[in-house]
Amino acid sequence: MKPIAPAFQWADVNEYSSSSNLEKYTVPVNHRPNFQTISHDPIPTIDMSEKDNSLLVQNITNACKEFGFFQVINHGVKRELCDRVLDVITTFFELSYKEKTVLVAKDHMEDGKIYKYSVDDTVEGKEIPMWSEALFHHWHPVDHGYTLKLPEKPDRYRYISF
């Protein structure tokens, strides 16, 4: 497995005791959200039981344009499966830094890898790491070859069954 890129660093809880360490995670004012312009409308809900496909597509399009995301209801995925997936992904993100480090990628679309986002501060000329990490992978219900790209830990990650 490839070692972590030198520029990558986990946000370690122990770092937060030092104000100089906290500063590297502080996003400059010009990159922070303007809460005066943020919508306080509820998150768009997409109902997959909608019979009119053109209306469904239009609702998804509008949600993406206006919010960038949406909640899906009546999707047909059993609650038990949703709970198992949430449980295993939570367990994954609770793994130690050492266990997750082998999955770090520079490309945010690399299958089965972790990506840490950052903000480029063009004024100061530096990169500011964000306090989040994202795991990206495809999920295909028929072609099980994709599972080889999934994380090996926690053990049950690759074997959540429908």
Spell out the key features of this protein:
162 residues; alpha+beta; two-stranded parallel sheet; 12% strand; disordered N terminus
Low-confidence stretches: 1-9
Q: State the separation between the terminal residues, measured CA to CA.
A: 30 Å
Major sheet summary line: 2 strands, parallel
Compute the CA-based radius of gyration: 19 Å
What does this structure look like?
The protein is α+β, with helices and mostly antiparallel strands. It has a domain of 83 residues. 24% of the residues lie in helices and 12% in strands. The protein is built from four helices and six strands. The strands form three sheets. The protein has a two-stranded parallel sheet with strand order 1-2. The longest helix has 15 residues. It starts with 18 loop residues before the first helix and ends in a 26-residue tail after the last strand. The N terminus is likely disordered.
Summarize the structure.
This protein has 162 residues and is α+β, with helices and mostly antiparallel strands. It has helices spanning 19-23, 53-66, 79-93, 97-101; strands at 45-47, 71-73, 113-115, 118-121, 126-129, 134-136. The two termini are 30 Å apart.
Write the layout of secondary structure elements.
Blueprint: H1 19-23, E1 45-47, H2 53-66, E2 71-73, H3 79-93, H4 97-101, E3 113-115, E4 118-121, E5 126-129, E6 134-136
Parallel strand pairs: 1-2
Antiparallel strand pairs: 3-6, 4-5
